[in-house]
């Protein structure tokens, strides 16, 4: 078997729980986030935003603002002199700074750089914008109707059937078999309509950057992002700059969850800097984060499932309509792919529709498209179980996808872990724990793809034998710890001999964004191979020193050894000894690996939750929560458990509280954490993570991505628990107290 | 020849959900699809992922494909 495929082994460091290398800096306030960097002569940026959901921009008068003392630059779309050819880059440009019209409440229309924050804010008030207000649409079903206000004409893909508004820009359809024939064989068929609200990623750190751009096209950005290479490439593409002239450094990141896989205002900071001739810091307020950076899509969904009395699913269909915000979207196809992915179905069909509305551009949010895909499917399966008096875990096991199952989205699965998560749930004490009055227990399954992508790692053996590792992905889930652990494991050295840093864009080749749960898998793969590269060089250096052939040298326990008695008798040479004589044996020692990682391996989870519904108020309280998920190999179990818990916590918020609320005027009514309530610690029980390790055959250590799947099952798991605790089936998220109370009272 | 399964809405454009393409690598497969089925070109330009024997590839043109490989075209995956 090639060494880069999975091989079972005993680990020395991987799988342990060392202290987090970034932990002390973060809890003592020393870690530097997006807003923490300053530069000599720095100006403060601020953005003027549209108060209208949809309006033509007739004129902008910036003269009064420009005349204010301390104002160094005022920009509008006219200052973005380059027009990208690519439609996607043109969308990014228009989203950063509106052109002919404002497409949503909060859309940027002008920006200011000034010597203080207060002057910048005051200058915004001095800018006069003449708007021609247009009809708007924020609801996905309304936006699909042929007579709906059109956000942008001419963006409809070739796959959209006639009869819809031009707001419907894309359609995808997956499945196999004949669902209608399948429904004929069912003992019970349930068809339901569901809706889910738009929710924000809710990262605690608002978007922030410090940017400098000279007239010669050279620039630098310090930015809070999930992908500084993406920031570099996108800013260069939007502004017509050479990517190599922009150097981007990622700060520490206070959460992203997909919301920071996009560019929202970095080109604006660069253009302000270019015009003012000074560095410009731009830090969004929470209001701006809500109004102008992507939440996930809201959705409207129809699901129909047929089941026999023995629990076999005979046919299944789903139609997902996802609102993409003010630009063409690409998330509904993922819903169409993910909804029934956990199940082995002969007859299944799904459709996904991408729909533009007058809302901020929807962004990825942790397994984008999958939570709203699983919610209706898992809800209807649960309702079928209730009505046919079936055990919900046994029923899911009966229909579970396994190795050899043809997935609902097409391919045949290799070895997968869904069955293991269901069996672990069945045997867990939570499943048989007693419940009290007004309490119910729900379960649900979830699926996510994971992927790899462009990845570069450099591993330097320093003169004292310590190791410096550079990777190009912002650390959002413990990647510095995980990379150090995998490098130390492979090199055979102590963990404290390895330090991992996040390199800037001028220091490594292209790296894909930190998304798709890819980093521990893909960067880990590159780390292991970079370590093997360095080991090969060190073996050659030892061989040169001993005067033997490099093939006659083995590497183990952090040292070169003669491979056998025929290689000669030499004492082992440690990494420290080899490093000390590197100048004499050929020069500095470094390994590196560049790869487009493929074969990330899909991921499954089963969640179990107990809730209590207050019959007086309709409030749902989460009492107990357990996550069962396949991690492939958990490199640092603390971080894996944190991912399980974090995804579940966000899913709980999505299920119970969180929602973008729009008024009749198309304006967002709750752009702040007071009115948009994410779960806080006191809302949640301890979420118990149960890690299952079914190795990914596509990774040397068996690693799979774990960061996203955990947000997929909670929506349905909680809906199913609420149904069993209150005897009502809610089909609209969030399940806020007024909705639950109304359902319980039958109103 | 490699049998390629298309997702439903892509199959509508090609006129069938399974097509035969002479290919030994991922690049040959994508080129062959575009040449034989021009209606697929807009989607191919927007990007696709390809499942080959259950393993999903996004970019690696040199990925080998056997005649008996299971090949399934998918919308290009993105993540959060």
From TrEMBL, chain A:
Pfam families: Ald_Xan_dh_C (PF01315), MoCoBD_1 (PF02738), MoCoBD_2 (PF20256)
UniProt cross-references to InterPro entries, sorted A to Z: Ald_Oxase/Xan_DH_a/b (IPR000674), Ald_Oxase/Xan_DH_a/b_sf (IPR036856), Ald_Oxase/xanthine_DH-like (IPR016208), AldOxase/xan_DH_MoCoBD1 (IPR008274), AldOxase/xan_DH_MoCoBD2 (IPR046867), AldOxase/xan_DH_Mopterin-bd_sf (IPR037165)
Chain segments annotated as coiled-coil in the UniProt record: none
Transmembrane segments: none
Superkingdom as given in the UniProt entry: Bacteria
Domain Aldehyde oxidase/xanthine dehydrogenase a/b hammerhead positions: 28-135
MF terms in GO: iron ion binding; oxidoreductase activity
Keywords attached to this entry: Molybdenum, Oxidoreductase
PANTHER family per UniProt: ALDEHYDE OXIDASE 1-RELATED, XANTHINE DEHYDROGENASE
Name this polypeptide is given: Xanthine dehydrogenase family protein molybdopterin-binding subunit
Organism: Marimonas arenosa
Organism phylogeny: Bacteria, Pseudomonadati, Pseudomonadota, Alphaproteobacteria, Rhodobacterales
From TrEMBL, chain B:
Taxonomic superkingdom: Bacteria
Cross-referenced InterPro entries: Beta-grasp_dom_sf, Mopterin_synth/thiamin_S_b, ThiS/MoaD-like
Entry coiled-coil feature ranges: none
Pfam families registered for this protein in UniProt: ThiS (PF02597)
Protein name, as recorded: MoaD/ThiS family protein
Annotated source species: Marimonas arenosa
